[in-house]
Amino acid sequence: MAMRLKDGIFLAPFHPMNEDPTLCIQRDLELIEHLDRLGYEEAWVGEHHSGGFEIIASPELFIAAAVERTKSIRLGTGVVSLPYHNPLTTANRILQLDHQSRGRVMFGVGPGLLPSDAFQMGISPAVQRERMVESIEVILRLFAGERVTHKSDWFTLVDATCQLKPYTWPHPEIVVASSVTPSGGTLAGRHGFGLLCVAATQASGYDALGINWKIATDTATKHGKTIDPARLRLVGPVHIAQTREEAWANIEFGCHQFAEYFARISRPGEPIDTSVHPIRKMVEDGAAVVGTPDDAIAQIRRLQAKQGDFGVFLQLAHNWANFDKTKASYELWRRHVSPAINDMNSQRQDSFAWATDHATQYIQAAMQAAGATIAKHAVANA
Question: What pTM was computed for the model?
Answer without folding.
Answer: 0.94
